[in-house]
Amino acid sequence: MNRRRSPLAPSRAASAGRAVLIAVALILAIGPVLYGVLLSLRPYSAVVQNPLDVIPSWEELDFSGFTTAMLDEADGGFGLGRFVLNSLLIALGTVVLSVVVSILGAYAAARLRYRGRGAVNAIILGVYLFPGIVLSVPLFVLLARAGLTGSLLGLYFVYVATTVPVAIYMMRNYFLALPESIEEAAIIDGASLPRMLRSVVLPIALPGVVATAIYVFMIAWNEYFYALLFLVQDRTLWTAPLGISQLTDFNVPVTVLLAGSIAVTLPVVVLFFLAQRYLVDGLTSGAEK
């Protein structure tokens, strides 16, 4: 029995064209990354002789690029492992403090009624839109007065100050998307504001909070300008972006540069896989608003 084709179903030509378009998009998106990964697994001499031979044989597999990039200078490496550890320390600390502060600030901006509320929200958005170069001098002067220049603690405070406005702006939209009737029911049942926020609002807004936390982590992890400004004099305190920049020197083998870049990217990829469900839900709930 022949099944009738739906008039809304795409034609075979359209289906074939869509498949070709998806394949081209995948090649353009994944191709350069996959090429870099395969090159990083080959000896440098083999890459120089034949850079287009992308598939390494079992005898040719070489992980020395990763060890050279990650080991300390005393062990013959470029110290990227220590720089990655510094970045992890600062990025995770920034996420914790920024998210806690932003939850309170975003809920106040979304729900509480007070005089000047619109002006406060506009100031938050304005600070978020300020370019980093404008804020660099005031931040440097403040940290110099506090004696925190050239320290991870000073850079940590800079990252918190620069990520809180964007985190508040993002989470405010998530809180606005929540139905107020749930909060009103919790208040009628006798819940205080802190308890209602902790037990009712946050579980519902968890995807939005996680999506914001990932975005803050990405900002702190990839930030280069402030790290260069505050840490350039002490190499032991460098973060991963500063460490990668040193590998761009012509004297560094390209396999080491590729291996270092892949090693720095892995924590972000793992984080995305672990929080993928929350990230999609959080972005969707923000879009609904």
TrEMBL record:
Localisation: Cell membrane
Record-annotated membrane-spanning stretches: 20-41, 88-110, 122-144, 150-171, 200-221, 254-275
Residue span(s) of domain ABC transmembrane type-1: 84-275
PROSITE patterns documented for this protein: ABC_TM1
Pfam families: BPD_transp_1
SUPFAM superfamilies per record: MetI-like
Protein's membrane topology: Multi-pass membrane protein
Keywords assigned by UniProt, alphabetized: Cell membrane, Membrane, Transmembrane, Transmembrane helix, Transport
Gene Ontology terms: cellular component: plasma membrane
GO biological process per UniProt: transmembrane transport
Cross-referenced InterPro entries: BP-dep_ABC_trans_perm (IPR050901), MetI-like (IPR000515), MetI-like_sf (IPR035906)
Family: Belongs to the binding-protein-dependent transport system permease family.
PANTHER family on file: INNER MEMBRANE ABC TRANSPORTER PERMEASE PROTEIN YCJP, MALTOSE TRANSPORT SYSTEM PERMEASE-RELATED
Protein name: Carbohydrate ABC transporter permease
Lineage: Bacteria, Bacillati, Actinomycetota, Actinomycetes, Micrococcales
